[in-house]
Automatic annotation (TrEMBL):
InterPro entries: Integrase-like_N, TACO1_YebC-like_2nd/3rd_dom, TACO1_YebC_N, Transcrip_reg_TACO1-like, Transcrip_reg_TACO1-like_dom3, YebC-like. Its main location: cytoplasm. One of its GO terms (molecular function) is DNA binding. It comes from Flavobacterium difficile. It comes from the Bacteria. Residues 4-73 form the TACO1/YebC-like N-terminal domain. Pfam families: TACO1_YebC_N, Transcrip_reg. It is found in: Cytoplasm. This is Probable transcriptional regulatory protein G4D72_10310. Belongs to the TACO1 family.
Length: 238
């Protein structure tokens, strides 16, 4: 088991507590995917992946269809993806992925969270290099020989594969391998339960319980923001 396994194990305890948050984020993903590649999932691989993810969080089908229809309306604002970088207290690097229709609002909000929690909002490139940008896929474990599957999927970029008792088989690969892996899994007729992207810290830092509380205070403020899609950091999660 490598870094991807440990990273996922830690983050599983940090899933969005409110289902509505997950629905909001998927809705934004749908808008961006439709604006970029059209409303037909068969011809839009990004949209296809998002619809799979909507099923994984039990988002009702009518919500997905409504979001796709809304995205085709030319008056619907598009969302711009913006990456924020900075430091929490005690030297913990933070990477924040956002999707916003108002850049000024998002910048002001993110800056205020860092200021209020004794953090520092950094410049572009200040911490991104500390994280590996990866993609991941989850498929059912039934009927799969994980060792054989790993050998076959290496050619498509998969670097780490492991079985999870709750989640089936998980594969991790570099960010740029997403399209090739998605295409190959679909060609094999394998059901993709979910897929996505992660930024795995290359080095993590262990803190005292008091220091963890300081960092968690900032993370909670950031994660509550509606423009925030994902938050990654270098703190060890127990």
């Amino acid at each position: 088991m490598g870094r991807a396994f440990e990273f996922r194990k830690g983050r599983k305890m940090k899933r969005w507590s409110a289902m509505a948050k997950a629905f909001t984020r998927i809705g934004k993903d749908i808008v961006m995917a439709v604006k970029e590649g059209g409303p037909n999932p068969d011809a839009n691989s990004r949209l296809r992946a998002i619809i799979q993810n909507s099923k994984a969080v039990n988002m009702p089908k009518e919500n997905v269809e409504r979001a796709i229809k809304k995205a085709t309306d030319k008056d619907t604002a598009n969302y711009k993806e913006i990456l924020f970088e900075g430091y929490a207290p005690h030297g913990i690097a933070i990477l924040i992925e956002t999707a916003s229709d108002n850049n000024n609002r998002t910048v002001a909000n993110i800056r205020s969270y860092f200021n209020k929690c004794n953090g520092t909002l950094g410049t572009q490139g200040s911490v991104e290099f500390m994280f590996d940008h990866t993609c991941n896929f989850r498929i059912p474990a039934a009927g799969q020989d994980i060792d054989e599957l790993e050998l076959e999927m290496i050619d498509f970029g998969v670097e780490e594969i492991f079985a999870d008792e709750e989640d089936g088989i998980l594969m991790y690969a570099p960010f740029e391998s997403f399209g090739a892996i998605q295409k190959e899994l679909e060609a094999r007729g394998l059901e993709i339960l979910s897929s996505g992207f992660d930024r795995i810290p290359q080095v993590t830092k262990e803190l005292t319980p008091e220091q963890v509380a300081d960092v968690e205070k900032l993370l909670e403020k950031i994660e509550e923001d509606d423009d925030v899609m994902n938050v990654f950091h270098t703190m060890v999660e127990n």
